[in-house]
Specification:
CATH architecture of the largest domain: 3-Layer(aba) Sandwich
Bound molecules: zinc ion
Number of helices: 11
Strand content: 15-25%
Order of helices and strands: HHEEEHEHHEEHEEEHEEEEHEEHEHEH
Distance between the termini: 11 Å
Structural class: alpha/beta
CATH topology of the largest domain: Aminopeptidase
Radius of gyration: 24 Å
CATH superfamily of the largest domain: Zn peptidases
Length: about 400
């Protein structure tokens, strides 16, 4: 492999420049189609043009920067991630994959000139689901999987109005307006957003799979009554049943698989007052695992436990409202990246992602792989989100090597 020196100072400058465009509040607030998001995509388009890349914008506001190949221009080797953030998000989630991808492409262009196949950097419009009740709308649109017409944000503004107005601000001369061809492969560089790489002292994570997710609403209905006059033995206390139920679920989740995550993130008591026995409790359950069977088994156990603890007039009902299947990413690309990481003397670990990513959409239409770098203290989706500079560099070095292997 040729020497491919990555200009880390340029990457740092690019990251700082985009992060400075976010409104002056806590953390990054680049919600899709917001003014900060428009400014960021506009900056990326301008860089693409300045750097002599072919620049394309689609109807959802996803930006594509191409270094067109000289032998097989129709074969596209793509990398990238998303431009949007959560509310009060960090400086690296999504953006590192976009600008790290751009840096990898610039490194190759500088060192070796035009590739045989086309290299593409993608900045997907939206992945986080922070504004509209949808996630991955950018990659879903590119993958021709789903559109999102008819959705509204919390202010009642509909997706299409926001989208059309924002994308109109990005259009300009020398910017192609089309939905480009799908790539031959897709590699997403991303921060880990968890503590496992740091714990293993590994610089690189190679992602074998992305967990499946299920979300439920559980409603426990008892009988509200006087907190002082109702004897303990005669209560139908919805919260007491909730505590028992949740405790059993924690233990069942642990016994099924130590990797099965189980989270009660929201809980509401009714009437929620100091001197009334709760008549009703509604709470959410989020569980994730890479194996559908484990998720199925847990769902069955959850239903059985609800039936076991229900006794007239107290009832527990479980309703599932989200079922996202686990996905396996491409094994060949992972093996190639493991090999390249060895050549570059970068320590690496193969792992599953507990968070969703654009890659789980892209893998449905093209061989897809992910490269993780460590998150300091495992923190993300928060302003404190950070990665050590040598690790940021390591991720881009591996991506550069991988793109080189595939496109030159
Ligand atoms: Zn992300």
């Amino acid at each position: 492999m040729p020497d491919l020196p990555v200009d880390m100072a340029q990457l740092t400058q690019h990251l700082a420049k985009i992060n400075a465009l976010s409104p002056d509040t806590s953390g990054q607030n680049r919600l899709v189609y917001s003014p900060g998001w428009v400014a960021a995509q506009r900056q990326l388009l301008a860089w693409g043009q300045e750097l002599g890349l072919t620049v394309t914008l689609d109807d959802y506001g996803t930006v594509y920067l191409d270094l067109v190949g000289r032998v097989q221009p129709e074969t596209i080797i793509a990398t990238g991630s998303h431009m949007d953030t959560v509310v009060q998000g960090g400086p690296l989630d999504g953006l590192y994959g976009v600008l790290g991808g751009l840096q990898a492409l610039l490194t190759l262009k500088q060192a070796l000139g035009q590739p045989k196949k086309t290299l593409r950097v993608i900045a997907f419009s939206e992945e986080e689901g922070s504004r509209f009740p949808t996630t991955f709308s950018g990659s879903k649109h590119y993958a021709r999987i789903e559109d999102t017409t008819g959705l509204k944000d919390k202010d009642g503004l509909d997706f299409d109005s926001a989208r059309t107005a924002a994308v109109a601000q990005l259009a300009g001369p020398d910017i192609q307006r089309t939905l480009p061809k799908l790539p031959a492969t897709f590699t997403e560089l991303h921060i880990e957003q968890g503590p496992r790489l740091a714990a293993a002292k590994a610089q690189i994570g190679l992602v074998a799979a992305i967990v499946g997710q299920r979300r439920y609403t559980v409603t426990v209905t008892g009988v509200a009554n006087h907190a002082g006059t109702t004897p303990m033995a005669q209560r139908q206390d919805a919260f007491q049943a909730t505590v028992q139920f949740i405790n059993r679920l924690f233990l069942l989740a642990q016994s099924l698989s130590p990797d099965l995550t189980f989270t009660v993130g929201e809980l509401a008591l009714t009437p929620n007052t100091v001197n009334v026995i709760p008549g009703k409790v509604v709470f959410t359950v989020d569980c994730r695992h890479t194996d559908t069977t484990v998720l199925d088994n847990f769902e069955t156990l959850m239903g059985n436990t609800a039936a076991l603890l229900s006794h007239d007039p107290l009832t527990i009902s479980v309703s599932r409202w989200a079922k996202i299947p686990p996905v396996q990413l491409d094994q060949q690309l992972l093996a190639q990246n493991a090999n390249l990481a060895d050549q570059l003397q970068l320590s690496h670990l193969t792992l599953a992602s507990g968070a969703g990513h654009d890659s789980q959409i892209m893998t449905q239409v093209t061989p897809t792989t992910m490269i993780f770098v460590p998150s300091i203290k495992g923190i993300s989706h928060a302003p404190q989100e950070a990665t050590a500079t040598p690790d940021l560099l390591a991720g881009v070095q591996l991506l550069t090597a991988s793109l080189y292997r595939q496109a030159y």
